Amino acid sequence: MKVRSQDPTHATYFIPEDWDLSEALDRLPAAFADARPEVARNLKRIEQAKKDSGGKIDHALDVVAVLVLETDDPDGVYDEVLHLLHQVRTARTTEAAPATAA
Fold it and tell me: What is the pLDDT of residues 56-76, one digit of tens each?
């Protein structure tokens, strides 16, 4: 992980494609957690979710973590992900429903 900016209130990070969330959390400067406590707290929650899921949804959680880092808006990211998942579920339910005869 490379820090693009040293300003802790507006830090930008370059995260390699094959990154590991726990490793990234260890490499984030302490100033990051001080400046963006909600984001840091949510990244730790995502890391715990990865451990709890047994690797089943690691990629999805990594995507969520990157979005949280990029947007600095964990609640907005979660709302959007839940909205998208609801759309997918609704589409699948609609596709699976048998056609009714008129």
Answer: 999 999 999 989 988 889 999
pTM: predicted TM-score of the whole model, two decimal places: 0.64
**Considering Cα of 53, then 61, then 43, then 45, what sign does the dihedral take?**
negative
Separation between Cα atoms, residue 101 and residue 4, nearest integer Å: 60
Sign of the alpha-carbon dihedral angle for 11, 16, 22, 23: negative
- The DSSP line for 19-71 is --HHHHHHHS-HHHHHH-HHHHHHHHHHHHHHHHHTTTTHHHHHHHHHHHHHH
Cα 36 from chain centroid (whole Å): 15
